[in-house]
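Methods: example folding runs. The two proteins below were folded one after another, and each record is reproduced exactly as written to the output file, sequence line first and structure-token line second.
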Amino acid sequence: MLTTTGCSRRRPFGLWKAARDAGDLAALSDLPFPVDVLLDLCRDCKVQPATYDLDVPATWPANWLEVEWQRPRDHMHEEKEREEKVNELLEEKEREEKVNDQPDAGEPLEANHLPPVQPVAPVLAPVHTLPALDGGGGGGDGGDDIDGDDGDDGDGGDDGDAVGLPAALDLLSILDRAVAPGSVVRKISSRRGLDAFCQFVAPIFAEYHQASENHDQPAMTICLSKLVAAPAICLSRPRNGNGNNKKGNKRQVSRINHALAVMHETEEQMTDPASPVFWDLHQQQLAYDKRGAVPPVAASDGGAGAEADEAELPAPSSISAEVRDQVKRCLQAESLVRDGHLSKAVKKLCEKGVPLVDSQGLALLADLHPAAPADRVTPSVPEEAAAGRILVDREDLHKILKLLATGACGGPSQWSADLLLQIYDNPACTPGIMSLVEDIINDSLDESGRQLMLQAMLLGVPKGDTIADGLRPLAPGEIFFKAAALYSMKPLMPQLAEHFAPLQFAMGVKGGAEVAFRLLASALMSGGKEVGVLVTDAANAFNSEDRDFMLQCLYELPQFSPLFKIAAFGYGHGPSSLVVRCADGTISRLSSQEGAKQGCVLGTLLYCLAAQKRYQQALAGCENVTAAAYADDFTGVGSGAQLARVAKGLIDAGHKLNLNKTYFWWPHASAVPDDAQEAFANLGIAVKTVNDLPGVKILGAFLCLPEKHQDHVDFIQRIVDSHNDMFELLDTNFLSASTKEWMLKACIQPRMIYHARVTPPDVMLGPATDFDNKMLQSYFYNCCHTTAERAADADPKQDFSIPALSLSVTEQITLPVRHGGVGLLPICSFMHAAYYSSYAAAVQWTEPFAAAAAAMQPAQWNHQRPASALLPTQIAAQSSHLYLTQHGVTTSDKDHFGAIGHPTDFIPEDFANTCEFYSNLENFSALHLQRFVTRQLMSLRSRIFEATLSPIDLARVKHLSNYGASAWRQYIHTASFSIRPLNNHEWPMQNKLCFGMPPAYGLLHCKCGFDLTLKPGDVDYDPAHHQSCIHQRKKGRNTAHDLVNSKVGELAHRCGVPNEREVPCAGTNKRPDGSALLSTGTVLHDTTIRHANCPSYVKDKSAGTAKVLQKAVNVKENKYAKDKMKADPENPGCMIISKPSLARTENATFMALAVTTYGDMHGDFCKFLRMLTDEAVHNGICEYKDRGRWYAGMVAEIATQVARGNAWTATRSSREARVATRAAVKTAVKAKHAAAVRSAARAAVEVVLSDVAPAI
């Protein structure tokens, strides 16, 4: 064997072969290869030596072409010296020929010019030894020589530990290879990059699928080791940027193509057990990420790409670290919004990231992961469950991957759910993915494969401002195991909810947190003056739970048998590895031997099963205690003595309480009972009174008695104030206008919905109003004004300020999109709907407490009893019910929900009938009560708003309410249907058009002379005059027309439909905008854009109706599709065609593609787009199930182009109007100056005359 690296091992042979084939005897003689080296190469490459005039040595076996050559280890040193000598000679020869072979500076490198892979010394961080890892051995550098030449580098592990892999690689080394650098993209942005990556990983998945069917464990392990290394080789993030720009996409594609070219050049197969070239590529990429050197593929981008990117960034000293952190978070949020992960985007803005741990943090994390007990006896899977095999369905797994694709980062290998979902539909990858998930579910991997799939990245999230405040250990694992776990759990959610009820609300209960809170609040307010609240906190709950006990609790429940084998896979075969990235750049390892990993969905279930037993054991005999748990958060309401018994029962059951955070809260003004005080003191649990805490925070909400109203308001106000930093970040220029709008209405506003559902509206009103004002001001400032306007407003030297937000614009912004608004609903507008919906969802749980309270004597109540004997939560819900009925929500007098034909259109007429009304509803969450109630409230607000508008404004809102008008703002721009969104200038300009705002401030006259100072109510008032101005017809409106027409042609080609623009027709000068050749025939189409609010349409009252577009269609049809008729001389009274239409002449169908400046389209335009969608489905470009999304994407693209054209027209008109305004001002100044001169002269003359007159 010549060398340990595949590329350098094959290069001598490749050079020899090229010289031999070319007949270049001089070059052949110059090659410094001894005969024995060439023979070694022939044997390695399975080539007959006779091809090169060499004889087969007698020492070779007769079947040498069929067997692998294992050279004795005694010859390794000699061959290494030979290898070094050969490589030195090769490098010297290449240096001599470098000048002649080097391409020009601007010449792109072809495939055969790609730089060869050079062997790179492994760059590996020190690791902690993994204790008790089966087959681990541990200790070594983790990156030993791939071919096994240096097998004595590590401490150990037997050769059989890593089954099917080279002997020198122990389990720890295999796991080290699976740790990708932190700079790996979570999603491929370009189609070319995705195709190239699929081409790279498809052979690995195909080989794994074949090995899985053959039950070949060594081959399966080899494939898994390569699979987890693929992102590090192909998807390393560019040194600057997030990889979603054009340059980053180009580099990504070049990197993957380089890897494919090297693999193809060296003829190495993915199934090769040693795979030296594959692992050389992996090591080079690791070296590049850790050293910051230029990667091999940089040469194909011109060589200076990285340096150019560095030069474009500001110097680190030019801006503060805080601003750089803000920019980084904003860029990440922008990328997440572009991919549709809105909730993740707002988390990026709120959180400052997880810091890398230092030595102190590493010690804290190690303390949080205790060792397994020495006498551990892990229960085995019941035989009846172990016998069968669970099969994976393709569509069900696809749904699971869509649920997981939320933009979250991946595990150690950086395989993310978004990336896996992208390649899932590739037919070459799907069988392998399904086989891997199926093997995990059925516990069919060997120890090495299991460790690769269970390895997790351990993150230490600070609980306070510093690490000293403690760390919360989160362990995101590999996406393959996460997908398998969720696939197994998803069908069992109803059974899980039934098993955990009525105590545990973390599993299987939709909105479990708010149901649990309402249960506890009802118990407290109906319990009288003798009840208190026990708030517990478990110490290191997940990581310290007994793993054997968790498995035993699961195995005792046969209804959950589909989970038995995957639970054994994850937690029943010993410890797994946790990877920790340290602040000094090193990587350390810890061992997960006990409990469940935080961040593992299966681990959460196992913990809840174990905790459920402990909770039930502690509550035994305490019938008057109401308890609710959300995972490890256990809260009880009852008398002090009984809650002390519960606390003691938890301790006796093995539930490890954190006594520093566990306390008993007494909410009454009276003294704490002595027996409760003494009992809790004996347990070491603190007792806090209402003087210490006016209320307690439970599951994110505030639990208190009604008299603490102001404290409750202050709690909500603090939550509102916590968003101030986010609003300040939105006011910067680091985010685009489109991203700001999406984050405001889809991320920031929903953050207060949970509090609106569990907080009484009278408490919520003040803080919600403050939050709504901040939200609307932020939207108006950032999304309705250009960057230049905001910069001028912030500059004190400029005499400019953004005007205040008007009432009409506020109302329109807060309307839903279907009513012509933005969809930024204020919390105050639907908090009654939210609170009543939450009450109805939990009424089956809280009704018994209300009945018990009604039977109590007034003196027994712990707060002032109302005349209705209703609990405070019921009074608040009754008030919300009354508000809903008074504001247009339809009601029903039926007693039962099932008696109504269309149940989602009604709420009960009588509030007291709420419990019975929804009693026979099996799945309340499927009702979406808050959604349909809010929809009716918004319909009423829309009608009230429209009644206050002028005719021109009403027409504008009517057009914006039509389908497609707001598609430019509705559609999330994803890589699957790429749309170039409006930029930071175009977005505000289109918003101004939609809201009836002038395109610019301070303008007096248009170029045509129109008065731009008119106000609403004035005659000829038209804020969108620029859209109908005669000076904008050619340069402005034609630009928008060309944009839309060009996009129509692009969409046709994207759907596989040939389309020709401006087709010349014989015998006429008429030229329609395009001709599309559909499978049903030729369609001539012509695009027209009409401003729906131009004065002529307002005057004839067609503005705001469908007549605007119908008139435009009639004009186009008369031009292209109407035949000229004349009387038939042979048949009086009949008409014949005197001149056929252009459509008839061309034997085609004509369709007028009419759209207004607001984006609403004529029915024929929609029909044409649906025809294109059908063609895309017919041509196999779009799947039938995705046709709706495909159609919506095309509508969004058309609306975006219309909006872009509007912005250009408004900008051009504003520029010309500004010139006209300046000219008018100069003229006025000159006229005023001339008048002043004349006035002064006249006054001087009068003075002279007055002085002279007496003398006369």
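Second run, written to the same file directly after the first:
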Amino acid sequence: MKQSSLFINSHRCQIRGLSSFALLNHHHMINHSVWFLCTSPFPSIISSREFSSTLSPNVEERDKRFSHTILLPKTPFKTKISVEEEINLQKICTEYAYQSQKEQRLNQPNIKTFTLHDGPPYANGNLHAGHALNKILKDVTNRYKIQTGHLVQFIPGWDCHGLPIEIKVLQELKKKKKMEVSGNSDPSIRKLAKDFAEQAIQSQMKDFKRWGIMGDWDNPYKTMNPKFEAQQLRIFLDMLKKKYIYRGKKPVFWSPSSGTALAESELEYPDVHISKSCYILFPIENNTGAEVEKYGELFAVVWTTTPWTLMSNEAISYNNDIEYSIIYDQDKHRRLIIASDLLKTVCEKTGIKNYVLLEAKKGQDLFVNNGSSVSPIHTTTTTNATTSATTTIPFSTRISSYQNPLTLKLKKTLLPFLHGSHVTTEVGTGLVHTAPNHGMEDFHVVRENNIPIGPCFVDEQGRYNSETPLEELRGLPVLEQGNLRVIQIFEEELSKYLLFREDYSHRYPYDWRTKKPILIRMTEQWFAELKDLKHRAKEFIDETIEMIPNTGRNRLKAFIESRDEWCISRQRTWGVPIPVFYRRRNSSPEEEYLATSESIGYVIGLIEQHGTDYWFEKSEDELLAPPYRNQGWKKGTDTLDVWFDSGTTWFSVMKASGIPLPVDVYLEGSDQHRGWFQSSLLTSLAYQGVPPYKKIVTHGFITDENGKKMSKSLGNVIEPENLVSKYGVDVLRFWVCFSDFTVDVSIGQSVFEKLSTNLKKIRNTAKFMLGVLADYSPPPPPPPPLTLPPQKITIQPNGPHDGETQQQHCYSNLSEADLYIIARVKQFCDQVTESYEQFSYYKVTQHIMTFTYELSSFYLDLIKDRLYCSSEEVRRPCQRVVQYILDCYTKAISPILCHTAEDIYQCMTYKKHKSLCEEGWFISPEEFFSEISLPNVEQTVEKWNLIIELRQEIYKVIERARMDKAFRTSNEVMVHIERVDCEKLKEAITPLLKPCSTNDPVSTQLDEIMMVSQVNWLNEATCECLYSHSYNTSIDGSQVILSISKASHHKCPRCWRYTSTVENETCQRCENVLNTSLKAPIM
């Protein structure tokens, strides 16, 4: 008996006072977090058994004469399961659940399908909390769809190629062979990289399975599989044929630390980067005219944060619409040209104090757009200033050319001024140093003016190359020593042209893999043309593709809008080769390439059969299609961008597996707007003209409990493996769905402690329901109708039903409280379903926790007396309601807490299938209670809100009395409702004034609901009232007056209720039950 008492207490809701308020306001509470529920400050409302447990342990001891007649709960279900038990459950709820639904539904006609395409994690290193967030969200989505009858095919995958793996392999090779890391072409790199990726895949797969992620783990996709690589190259060939892909020489993002070109999506921009900025004076060509003698030389003032690019300066850009001022610096006897809007700022910063404004003109009036007038641009002229090779340019004449001070001592070259719409007055001087080898906008300005572009002086390692005119710069890294040396030259040798220098803090692009700064460098690459594709992409984003959250729409559009081209070639070894051959003819500096359908198609066939290693290991004649052999072609060494790998998975995986396109959902982190979402959309539009997905769902990133980014250096990294070992998998899954995942999600020990407590509450609630159903068998289905369908029965609680069999009556004899909880379950199911459909999983958990507290503190507490002490005809209808509650409750938690839900299902004595996943989704109350005409849900809940409000007010008075030690338990209390002005409350209470059952003629349903000895409804009190109270109803503000007194009856030694007319004797209900020879169920 002591053990049973502990079991009962373990189910007690720990939040006193929540029951009535929660039921009254459950539809308002959804917008609050569960932490709100856990710290509710509402007045303490304690049930009769809570009184006894807090005041006197002896009260819990039932009379031993009747202990064997009490039907206490019994179930093998545990409050917490072991790791071994959890793993055993996974075999059913994950492995069996996925395979069984696939086998049963795959060939069913008209079956609903759902496909969530798995964005491939990188096969590198151990999994972290971000992986858990991503994969568990996908799994919750898939489980919900399986539960609702969809065929789900989830093919997990991995991104296997790319720089991080190659760098790690190269570092190992460097240790063993003392080899250079960047640019290494050792053939063993690819084998080592493949082995490294495969080891990472096996390790990560093990963790994914441990988290309960269901999927086709026997056949995952890997971007290094030959069939995948071949499919990827088919997309490349298709885009090449449609002229979306071309080869060109352009400035591209180049990572010296990686030794390869990068795409915009592979960059990150740290908030703080310090550049060495300089204000440089570029001399404008003129002779010793009158203006020069009077005002000094004329200079264009240019600001740059990349002094190392001055070696490649080929123009100065201005804007036709900007006004420029020509000032006379009296202290230095020189003239300077600066944008008028920036004049004050520049002069203050550079220390120019005494100056005179000579003239101000718009750019179009001051400069000559000298795209073709200076000829030739790169021709050396005589250094004799008095010759006719140069002309005087007084400040009142339009200016057309200047000289680069850094190369003056080498040659005298006139360079042009060019109009550029990218020039603004936000920062700088309004004049922009233009180096087309090192800037995209610079390149376009020079190209638009048909000016030949000079050579690039920076090599693959980011060093000045052998063609650099200044020998002292050759071999220096341009971002480090090279940059400092250029500044030093200006300070020591060209100080006349250095106006000012300072450190400048700003955002600067970094290689997101090596975390080192990149540069822009002219080089020949393969590009995907995006100008046409991006306009179509934006239309689909605006009109067709669903976004959760909707803010992702503008984010994806912005990334696509910012790109006119996509550099898809990389100068690395571990990747899919671009199957193109090259050669030079007749000593021509221009290289021609072979990229026909026949030549590429032939290589694709070889790769599909042998893998991409074949390209790197075999000779050209073995790789070339027969018509092209022995013609001097050499295979290329470039590989495809890994975003092209993953960006074609919709084709290489989904379409290749026979899964219809577009798939339903892509679900990834918000960083994939610039990555996978974008590359997949663009390749799909190029190939098939439509997006590869219908909906994009994005989640935020992981932070610690203080909102800080997870970092090993900060010591705030929490490994999922440790959390699973301590709390179990379901707590990890609970955490994923507990917060709004569309923003950043915090993780920490305190969060998991609270979630662990919440999971225990869920398990205890389920444990009680399983326990009271131990002796329960569901009623048999009604027989099929012969001629007419069976007549619906309108419930008269606890009353007879003419024409109904005794068994049907036994299962259908529902109380008003039963009908209310059925209505609440219907509401709960609708709320949970809607939240799952909207991907609002945090709302699902809120609904679950709110309903858990409602059940534990109200209905399940209410029915304990019925289930423990009443007759069979009273217990069975109640058990049937509990069965329905448990069925819906278990299904509601199953997508998130899959192990807990499966554990509950396996402990159901009446289960029909091997796994819960085969049960389907919620059964409507109309279907479950098919022989009953249930009342309207909304009306029932509205009515019961008034009843619960009354209960809340009654318990306020009881609590006051308890604090004064007037009563020990609520069962000792008699309640007198003296006045009720609210007609709706009267209507709601009237059905509750009937007896609880034919075996219990003394107690009414109202007594049971209020959990007191007796409620005297609108009758004159027959005994002394100890406490009085009044309140105004929430529905219309009308008044209710009530009071409480001591119970007029004695405590029943069997059920504890104060309904016995003789002290120490059983009450009439218990007497009737005992007389029917009630036997304890066989457990």
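Comment on the second run: Residues 65-83+719-778+812-914 form a domain with the Isoleucyl-tRNA Synthetase; Domain 1 fold (CATH 1.10.730.10).
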